[in-house]
Specification:
The complex is a heterodimer. Helix content of chain A is 25%, strand content 34%. Chain A has 4 helices and 6 strands; from the N terminus they run E-E-H-H-H-H-E-E-E-E. In chain B, strands 1-3-4-5-2 form a 5-stranded antiparallel β-sheet, with no helix packed on it. Chain B has one domain: Hotdog Thioesterase (Thiol Ester Dehydrase, Chain A). Chain B has 2 helices and 5 strands, in the order E-H-H-E-E-E-E. Chain B is elongated and about 50 Å long. Classes of the chains: A alpha+beta, B mainly beta. Strand 3 of chain A pairs antiparallel with strand 2 of chain B.
């Protein structure tokens, strides 16, 4: 959980995570056991990936976005599920095998009566520091 | 006559879906996300395990609507997303997902569609709202 005394500028980071092909399929293939599993989409099918302009199947941006949510859940706990907001841009695709770390920099904190609002700059970056998702997140604590 | 996804105009809704996230599907996403927080696995005093938020994102993508039909040989790309989490969803609950196109514009020869998506639980309570910015290739 975030320390309510955290100050703007403080950086929080998630673990470096590898999007293995198995995990990409688990996320984008639909429920295991479905008759048509895995579902065909640009994340599971090379032809559809090419149609979308990619040379190979790409990791769903929402899978990496989910990692940002996880980072925020770690900072705000259950409060995030009732009050969290996340706004992101997907600036570069990921492919299976890529590694990504989620990052959040506290941009602003404001006390409003009995609670404090927190605003972060957030991003996902590859193992060599290239940003693939950028955006902002907000939540509050009593 | 087939209506393709890039033909929907502001004010038009995509066909909604009802989704029941089973414990197994949720567990599959925990594997995908490498996130085994107990709140997604065990029931709490507030009810069944929570649906992982990444799965909420997956089921509320516009591509999940039966209305999502692409022109042959094309695909769309999610470019931006703005999500507001309002309440946890629980495993085995029947969730309703709706989509409505709220904006369309062209930029650099590509069609950008803005879609408002919402998830509500079986009691009608909002779980999540989001605004997706989806990019389609230029029409031939």
């Amino acid at each position: 959980m975030i320390d309510p005394a955290a100050e703007p500028g403080e950086v929080f980071e998630g673990p470096l995570r590898r999007f293995s092909a198995a995990r990409v399929l688990a996320f984008s293939g639909g429920p295991l056991g479905s008759p048509d599993w895995p579902e065909r989409n640009p994340h599971t099918d090379a032809a559809l990936a090419r149609a979308a302009g990619f040379s190979t199947p790409v990791v769903s941006g929402q899978q990496a976005e989910g990692d940002l949510v996880r980072l925020m859940m770690g900072l705000f706990g259950p409060r995030w599920t009732t009050s969290g907001t996340l706004k992101v841009k997907f600036i570069r695709p990921l492919i299976a095998g890529d590694t990504v770390r989620t990052m959040a920099r506290l941009r602003a904190k404001a006390s409003k009566g009995a609670h404090a609002d927190f605003e972060f700059e957030v991003w996902c970056e590859t193992g060599n520091g290239d940003k693939v998702i950028v955006g902002e997140a907000k939540c509050w604590l009593p | 006559m087939i209506k393709f996804a890039d033909e929907f105009q502001p004010g038009e809704s995509l066909e909604p879906i009802a989704v029941v996230v089973t414990f197994d599907w949720n567990e599959q996403i925990l594997f995908a996300q490498q996130d085994y927080d107990p709140c997604y696995i065990r029931a709490t005093g507030n009810g069944p395990p929570h649906v992982h938020p990444a799965l909420l994102l997956a089921i509320s993508a516009n591509t999940r609507s039966p209305s999502y039909r692409l022109r042959p040989g094309t695909a769309s790309v999610l470019a931006e997303d703005a999500v507001r989490f309002l309440a946890p969803a629980t495993v085995d609950d029947r969730l309703a997902v709706t989509w409505r196109v709220v904006g369309v514009h062209e930029k650099r020869g590509r069609l950008h569609q803005t879609i408002d998506a919402r998830i509500t639980d079986s009691a009608g309570m909002p779980v999540l709202t989001r605004e997706l910015r989806v990019v389609f290739p230029k029409r031939a």
